[in-house]
Amino acid sequence: MISNAWFSTEYEQYKFLAFILFIIFSLIVSNYVHKKGLLYPEDNRRLVHAAVGLTMSFSTIVFSSKFSPSFIAIAFIFLNIIAFKSKVLSGIHSQKRKSYGTIYFPLSFLIVSYFFWEKNQFLILSLLILAISDPVAAQIGSRKSSTKKFKVWYDYKTVNGTVAFFTSSILILIIGNIFILEYKLIDSISFILITAIFATISEITSKKGTDNLSIPIISILIMIGLNDQFLIHQEVIDKLYIPLKLIAITFILFIPYRIKVLSISGYFSSITMGALIILFGNTVQFILIALFFVLSSFLNLIIKKYTLRKSKNSHRNILQVICNGGVAICICIYEYFNPNPINIYLYAATVAAAMSDTWATEFGKLSESKPILITSFRPIEHGLSGGITMIGILGSLLGSSIIGLATYLLIDSELILIFGIIFTGFLAALFDSLIGDKLQGKYETESGKIIESMQVDANLISGYKIINNNFVNLMATITGPFLMYLTIYFMNQ
């Protein structure tokens, strides 16, 4: 039996030292095992992943505050970055496939522990899913018998590995419900199945180890959201609305996937965003984001009938979905935990910015004349960032106006704030074009064609490699609420 003194603040420094030493010991052992060839590199990495993950999972009941484990996480983020760049610690960095999972792992712990330290029951379960289910899935998926592979976004997954991840997540959540949560039957079933499904979605929609970041974050948000919904809705019939809404959003979002507005990774990420809106958002937030996705999808379908030009934003993948809707989700969750009347206007402004930018691109494809650069007014080819057209500007203003009008109809608001939503969304779209012109990387191929994606035969001629269209879209959705905040601030002066 563990002494109660172990959990007291008096022994905080010793616990801190013990955690540091254990992690360092694990890394030294993994390095030794790799050099001696005792295990395959992937198997070695998975063991370290599981050992360190299990240790950090229970840090919430060992440490009295989040500061010590947060410091440990920060230290090992930098340690892993250095190790990755210098190719040391071969025990965890020697696998053939390129992965940043060792960096994302402590980063995910830092995020969930910093924001949800007081929700330690959910924090433990989310970290256990990452620590156990992820290595189990990788181990089973790597067997020779696991021949059926699929790719949702970037990394190939196996059917056996995915089933193993889902099954082990369910087992972890069942044990967690028995010993920690003690939900009633209907709550227990919903909690276990929904959390396991979205944890699995996070695992299959991964790129170079990003699942180490997304699994704990998505899992803990889903668990907290479900738990709060159980407390709000006491009747059994009311509890059934939660899974029914999730099923409904899954079928609704299948339409833009079917008409090829969303890729398969974009489809799954949109479902996850929809789930977070259902759990943490209100009716207004849901309607506004739904208007953006539905109307933009049908606009894309209609425009396709009148032009052969393809938009760089069509067939959106997971990154494009996140960059267009991620800020809105963050504001939605922030509003849930920190209610403030201005948050709804910031939310509407970021949706208006995304809508304005998207509609500018779609309407711009109808222009018979070439776009002109927003800064120099020099004509450029269709499809390149930084270009504007008259019809595109009108489409941009129409898009933000729809969100502004919808906000006006849904909430009791002053007209000046509605006009603020419209024009901040519109200005954010123009800012998108400005960044696209001045900062986004553009390349010239050997044939002289100007493109916006890196290729072997292409040289950078303007902008920066790290700034692509996804980054530009993200900046637009940040600019919208930022300008709206300034508008409200100066109105109150």
Major β-sheet strand ordering: 6-5-7
How many helices in DSSP terms? Answer: 18
Number-wise, the strands total 7
How much helicity do the residues have? over 70%
What low-confidence regions span 5 or more consecutive residues with pLDDT below 50? 1-7
* Number of discrete domains: 2
Strand and helix order = HHHHHHHEEHHHHHHHHEEHHEEEH
Q: What overall geometry do the principal axes of the alpha carbons give?
A: globular
Structure description:
The protein has helices at residues 12-36, 41-57, 59-62, 67-86, 90-93, 101-116, 120-141, 159-181, 185-204, 211-232, 236-258, 264-280, 283-306, 318-337, 343-364, 390-410, 415-438, 469-491; strands at 149-151, 156-158, 372-373, 387-388, 442-445, 450-451, 458-462. It is mostly helical and 493 residues long. It folds into two domains: 1-232, no CATH class; 237-493, no CATH class. The strands form three sheets. A three-stranded antiparallel beta sheet has the order 6-5-7, with no helix packed on it.
Question: Any descriptors?
Answer:
7 strands; 4% strand; disordered N terminus; 493 residues; 18 helices; globular
Furnish the topology, listing elements before pairings.
Elements: H1 12-36, H2 41-57, H3 59-62, H4 67-86, H5 90-93, H6 101-116, H7 120-141, E1 149-151, E2 156-158, H8 159-181, H9 185-204, H10 211-232, H11 236-258, H12 264-280, H13 283-306, H14 318-337, H15 343-364, E3 372-373, E4 387-388, H16 390-410, H17 415-438, E5 442-445, E6 450-451, E7 458-462, H18 469-491
Antiparallel strand pairs: 1-2, 3-4, 5-6, 5-7
Can you give me a brief rundown of this structure?
This protein has 493 residues and is mostly helical.
